[in-house]
Amino acid sequence: MEIADSEVFRLVLEAEIRRYASRPVDLLIVDDIAQWAATRKGNAKGNPVAMAITDGETSAWGILLCRQIDAAWVSSVISRREFGGFLRTRDVLHTPEIFLRHVVILELAHLENNWGQEHEEDCDAWAFDKLGINAI
Fold it and tell me: Is the full-model pTM beyond 0.90?
């Protein structure tokens, strides 16, 4: 599976964000997250598929999402979930839409719970729970 253009799913993703967010969150779909962060003196710690951000001046929340995600990248993201104990991830995140919904809600979990990267499995569990998906 690959995602040719995440923009196609914007309305669905923004609806998911509104459904679970306790405050407004901007969804920013960009070509390259590391490049976007570098132009704003930020640090993307690699070049992830998605990233939760907080504006340093306004404290506004945002979620960055890559516009294009090739099949190898999708597989890598899914493998990371499986390694974290969510063994059914490949079966349940089987369409571009549900994959992106999970990715965006996972990033929202970082914002809502003030969790850093050390809580990635907690964020996965939070996202799977919100989406009503059993990935274990």
Answer: yes
